[in-house]
Amino acid sequence: MPGHHIVVGGGLAGLTTAMKLAEQGEKVDLFSIVPVKRSHSVCAQGGINGAVNTKGEGDSPMIHFDDTIYGGDFLADQPPVKGMCEAAPGIIYLFDRMGVMFNRTPEGLLDFRRFGGTKHHRTAFAGATTGQQLLYALDEQVRRYEAAGLVRKFEAWEMLSYIQDESGDCKGICAIDNRSMEIRAFPGDTVMIATGGPGLIYGRSTQSLVNTGSAASACFQQGAIYANGEFIQVHPTAVPGEDKNRLISESIRGEGGRVWTYKDGKPWYFLEEMYPAYGNLVPRDIATRAIHKVVYEMGLGVEGQPLVFLDVSHIDPAVLNAKVAGVLEIYEKFVGQDPRKVPMKIFPAMHYSMGGLWVDFKQQTNIKGLFASGECEYQYHGANRLGANSLLSCIYAGMVSAPVMTDYAKAHPNGGNERIGEQEVVRQRESFDKIFKMSGRENVFAIWRELGDIMTENVTVVRYNDKLKATDAKILELKERWGNIGLNDRGKWANTEALFVRHLWNMLELARPITLGALNRNESRGAHYKPEFPERDDANFLKTTMAQWSSDGPRFSWAPVDVSLIKPRPRRYDVEKSATMKAA
Amino acid sequence: MVLKIKRQDDPNSSAYWEEFEIPYKAHHNVVSMLMEIRQNPVTRGGKAVSPPVFHANCLEEVCGACTMVINGRVRQACSTIASELPNPTTIEPMTKFPVIRDLWVDREKMFDNLKKVHSWIPIDGSYDLGPGPRLDSDTQQFAYLFSRCMTCGCCVEACPQVNSHSKFMGPAVMGQVYLMSQHPTGKMHEDERIEAVMGDGGVADCGNAQNCVEVCPKNIPLTTAIGWVGRKASVKWLRDLFTK
């Protein structure tokens, strides 16, 4: 008898898992707040990494592995990262077979571009909408299994919690229909959480509106460990906006874009000067801190604003149109200027969480039967993610987990117990009944803005312990005020405000392990930078932060990092990597 | 800035209009204005109301979620910038799809159509079978235009042939039928997709109004695809006549 699996999230990680499970003949119930084709994976622009080595550069999965570990400042457990880099060329070939319109060389082979943190052309791309194209290819394959009756989609449904049996193991989920507000239990042999990042905790980020981290937070509150939450990637190049900060992809620099500002009346290409070995293609944390320094410490922002230039006006427009049109269009549409002619004005923005639900090498959380893949888990990127590794990690994690989930379902069948979630449904209904009765003076969206503002100010590029403490105090204050929210919408049909009240609570709960994780880590590593502790401290902090929820706040412990394959060495981008290897 | 918003409490109730006023900011877009309204949902007349419900996600015009009819034209709300808008501005839900609530509509029939036409490459399996087929860059560049279709439904909304008396699947799905044939493996299975657009609601229902290419936010050459699909369907019809 086939196993019955719940996949929550319809982005790259969720759809890969669903496709792989269905391919094995397993039954899948797929849940997504938005129709899966509208998932946040569409926003990934630049590409997907794989050392296919078609440019005569001597690239290999082992060099990709080393770049990833080094780029992540040695915080990632190494064996799964090695597995991912080895699988990468095969994954790119698979998506080519599935119909992704990757850019081609004159010989009709896949073309590759350069991305940050590497010296190799390793990034396959479909124009500047690679994430969208990969997602659509998966959407099509999953639709094929849907037509064959193996996948059932529950779109406009969102997960509220997972269902626990007597031993605390996961046996399905409890979910709410965003239209009818009906709450139901969905029993299953396993559950995959593939719900993406927590960008909305920062108010305006480069992430999509569904990315509240709510599902991961719900699991955390029920007992799943949240790891390395403090590692938040701030992307160096985004366009600040009222509703979100729109990403300008790293592919722009991969195709020759240069970052500069005026100094003494002349253009100053500061990344090229500070980091001669990598220039504009330093990793994101390095570029972000450089821009931060130029703007705030040196006072050299464009027109006195927190902005610097990202310039492609020297590149042939035909090349730009063939390779990065999608990115330039975003700038044109939202700013109203043509970046082929005038330099873009950009500033760093919260982009990605390296941290997430703790999982083992088979993607299983500390809760039996509960799996996690994609940005919502912590496994592949250490202290800083390299560009074009996120699409890869989502797909690879889905591929690793599906066979494990199948085996788990065989070994631990649910036994057709359809009543198992009844108590959980009662608990969730009660919690929504309370939300519907909220009649205080606070507006849910205004509290959310306050959370976003303080997180962006204090828990992004530069971190100080006193400000982190103040941020946690503010989060506690906002939790208090959450209780005084008044609902403007009393309807019982498609009440998106009531749904957001619950999302906000989950954001507040998840903001704490992020903030306190940063407070605890008195060193600087990858995206986590403390001027009071400017050096990496392997003796004390080469370890994974593990947060467990309790009613008195998150409890922290630390786990060793598996560095069995590559010995940690200092991370520098002003010199070639070979120089750091000699030094180590 | 005054926004006149067409509202509807649920699929079965009737629509009504409400007006809201917010401070003008040049960099606002329609989604960020709706977000501002929900922080203080009070009409121009001073009545406290429920915040208008809308569907939006990426806010970069790549997911298609926030498609609405703004000043009579169907487009994505996120990329509709305040500085381009007249004052007052009207915001309505799409009309060719059932309203769920306010500005949020149900476009599931578009995804069902993709199912009907087998819009996928039928690979043998997702295991590692080596590199895919080679493809020339010109074919890739033209096919890529169609691969950017986000199933937003602008073309369906603007098409006069999509109405309550017709079953026409609309232009977007024809673009995908064309796209699948540009891939060497997809080409092998072209016949089953052409078959699927030969019946009721298929390509023959296109009235050549060409509104679809006018409104497509990604400038997808949909009429080229429809013409191609139409010719393939005619050839297949003739071939079937003599061989079946």
How would you portray this structure in words?
- The complex is a heterodimer of chains A (about 575) and B (about 240).
- Chain A is built from 16 helices and 21 strands.
- Chain A is an alpha+beta fold.
- In chain A, strand 4 (about 110-115) and strand 5 form a beta hairpin.
- In chain A, helix 2 (about 60-70) crosses helix 3 (about 80-95), helix 12 (about 445-460) runs antiparallel to helix 13 (about 465-480) and helix 12 (about 445-460) packs parallel to helix 14 (about 495-520).
- The longest helix of chain A is centred in the C-terminal third of the chain and has 25 residues, at about 495-520.
- The radius of gyration of chain A is 23 Å and the shape is globular.
- The mean pLDDT of chain A is about 95.
- Chain B has helices spanning about 30-40, 110-115, 135-145, 155-160, 170-180, 185, 190-195, 210-215, 220-244; strands at about 1-5, 15-20, 65-70, 75, 90, 100, 105.
- Chain B is elongated.
- Chain B is of the alpha+beta class and about 240 residues long.
- Helices cover about 35% and strands about 10% of the residues of chain B.
- The longest helix of chain B is centred in the last third of the chain and has 22 residues, at about 220-245.
- In chain B, helix 3 runs antiparallel to helix 5 and helix 5 (about 170-180) crosses helix 9 (about 220-245).
- At the A-B interface, helix 1, helix 3, helix 4, strand 13 and helix 9 of A face helix 1, helix 2, helix 3 and helix 5 of B.
